[in-house]
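stage 2 :: seqdesign
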């Protein structure tokens, strides 16, 4: 396990297996942030605030050099049941299968979902493929009475919300 501590105001250090402190890599910093957000936002966390959702997803997905299609499965009061990285892709795409998302929603007894994925390119604009898969997923989930609340794209420090853009 990596232990993170501040050595000075400008350096973040990690302790290696022999107890020596070394400058942290960007990947170690992102991993520490992901671990911290996982501890903070556990099962039952309230996701009714769009700002909280975006902050959580930025911490989870920032710094990835490949696409991951993830789903926040929520209960009827929009509390987190589980964050699941459903599909992993390459630098510019990931294959998403609606059947698998529906199966997971039913397994978790979810009432609502929020989709998310990073754009490693740094461009937060939804592609045509993003819009198409969101529509397909929303329709498939609606058949089993699971609401699609949003699809959020994370790109560097920017986010794009389909709900805020009127794309849902």
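stage 2 :: out
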């Amino acid at each position: 396990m990596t232990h993170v501590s501040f050595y000075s105001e400008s350096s973040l250090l990690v302790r290696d297996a022999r107890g020596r402190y070394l400058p942290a890599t960007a990947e170690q910093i992102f991993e520490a942030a992901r671990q911290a957000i996982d501890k903070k936002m556990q099962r039952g966390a309230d996701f009714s605030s769009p700002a909280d959702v975006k902050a959580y997803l930025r911490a989870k997905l920032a710094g990835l050099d490949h696409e991951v299609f993830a789903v926040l499965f929520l209960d009827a009061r929009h509390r987190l049941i589980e964050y699941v990285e459903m599909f992993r892709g390459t630098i510019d795409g990931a294959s998403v299968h609606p059947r698998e998302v529906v199966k997971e929603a039913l397994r978790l007894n979810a009432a609502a979902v929020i989709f998310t994925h990073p754009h490693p390119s740094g461009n937060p604009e939804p592609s045509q493929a993003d819009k198409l898969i969101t529509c397909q997923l929303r329709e498939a989930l609606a058949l089993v009475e699971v609401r699609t609340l949003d699809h959020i794209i994370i790109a560097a420090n920017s986010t794009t919300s389909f709900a805020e853009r009127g794309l849902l």
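stage 3 :: structure notes
- The two ends are 41 Å apart (CA to CA).
- Confidence is low (pLDDT under 50) at residues 6-10.
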